[in-house]
Structure formats: C-alpha cells, structure tokens
Amino acid sequence: MIIGGLQKVTLLDFPGKVACTVFTVGCNMRCPFCHNPGLVNAIGPAMPQEEFWDYLEERKKILDGVCITGGEPLIHDDIEDFIMKIRDKGLLVKLDTNGSFPDRLKSILDKGLVEFVAMDIKNTIDRYPMTVGIPDFDTEPILRSIKIIEESGIDHEFRTTVVGQLHRSEDFGQIAKLIEGSDRYYLQSFNDTGDLVSDNGKEGKQEVRYGPMTRPDLEEALKNARTVIPTAKIRGEED
Length: 239
Known about the structure:
alpha/beta; 8 helices; TIM Barrel; 29% helix; eight-stranded mixed sheet; 239 residues
C-alpha cells in the first residue's frame, strides 16, 4: 500500500464517527476535475507506512474508525490486508471507491471488512468516458459495483461531484436511475482548489477551466434526481 497523506481527525467523512482519513496513491481514472493530481499521478514522496501505523496505535482509543480514500484504494492488491490490519487495532473502516474493481469490492464486503462504503457515480453511462478522462472507458464494472453495494447490506452512500462543464441538470434523473432504491445520494458541488489533474497534463495547462454548476442549475439537478430518489440531497445542506 502506498500512502499519500493522512488527515488526522475528521467528524464528517465517516458518518457518526470520529475518524482519520488515509489517502492512498494511484488511480485508474483521469477525471480532469480531480483535485488530487499528486495521488492520481504518484507525484511527490509517499508517507512512510510506519508513521501511519504509529499514529493509529497512539490514537486508537480516541478514534472510532479510519476512512480509506484515494486516489482509488481498490487499485492496490494488498487492500484487504491493509484493512484487516486497521481492524486488528479495534477500529472501524469506511471505504471510498470509484467502482472500477467490483471483484475486489465484493470480496471486501462479503467478508464484512468495512462498516460503510461510499461510491462515486461520475455521470450518466454515455458521458462516463468524458467525465473520467478515458475515451474507451468500460462502464460494465461500474454497474456491477453498484449492484454489489446495493445487495451487500452494508451501510453506504452514492455521490456525484457536479461540474458545470461536464454535467447537465436534465441528466440527473437518469443518473439517479443507476442507483434507484438507494436512500443516500448526494450531489457535491465542485470546488476548484487550483490544482487539478487537468492542470498537470503533458501539454501543460488546459484550455478548459472547470467550475461549479450554477446554483439554479444545481437545484434543478437535485429536483430531477429526486424524481427517482426522493431523499437525494446537496452535500452540506442535509436537514
């Protein structure tokens, strides 16, 4: 496992828990709006694993759990061993994934290794390749992962980061249909941190400057999502 960083305390990432968030390095997608290019492209030094394990040992009586995010954590062959080592310290685990590795995901869920899983739904199926930055991207694993999560009985959520240049409000009913029957679906308004994957290509800065969807369009997107999932929400505006 290659660790890119650690957020030592979070009250938001793991619902109802005091947790830390560990960021793994490497991702199979190249979403142009991703704000973690160092994790995606393995830029910069990795965090020594010993530092992470020492932190957990020191804080395991304070923390409830660990959020594992990326990059894409399931790209790593040793992800199960990594999770089990966290659990051996008496900590709960939340896993973030983009859904590209359904077999690995199913193994983890079938073994009950995580208490919560969050999956990104990037866009409608036909617009997935454009959104993830891979022209020939195969969406079949995405659909399999959705089904695996929904049938697992594990607490979960789906979310879409909404980018003005990549998403259309009228498509959110179609996006929601991919996860119809789920209780938790969040629209997350894109926030440009100033350091995106699209800024780190071989050709230098990209011509497109990605930004959030306008508020009226975001509200329309939510309205369309709620025709399928009435409980859909905008992240940060939960009741």
